Amino acid sequence: MKIPDNDELAEAVLSGEIAWPLDPARPYDAPRICPLCGRRMVVKISPMSWEAACSRHGLLRSEWVER
Ligand SMILES: [Zn+2]
C-alpha cells in the first residue's frame, strides 16, 4: 500500500480534535482502525514503537502521541 502524503490523521489526533482510541489497559498497542474513516490501518510494530497508516489519512507514529 502506498502511504498517502497526508497528515490529516496526525493533525486530528495531535490537535485533540479526535480522541485517540487507545486501550488504556494496553497503551502500547497500535491502533488498528482509523478513527477518521474506520478503515483498517496498516500497522508496523517494533519493540519500542509503532506506526499506523490509513490509506486515506496518512501516518501516525507512537512517538507523536506519547505523553
Ligand atoms: Zn482514515
From TrEMBL:
Pfam family, one: BsaP
Entry keywords, A to Z: Biotin biosynthesis, Iron, Metal-binding
Metal-binding listed as a keyword: yes
InterPro entries: BsaP_C
Cofactor: iron-sulfur cluster
Residue intervals of the Biotin synthase auxiliary protein C-terminal domain: 41-66
Role noted for this protein: Required for the activity of the biotin synthase BioB.
Family to which this protein belongs: Belongs to the BsaP family.
Protein's recorded name: Biotin synthase auxiliary protein
Organism lineage: Bacteria, Bacillati, Actinomycetota, Actinomycetes, Mycobacteriales
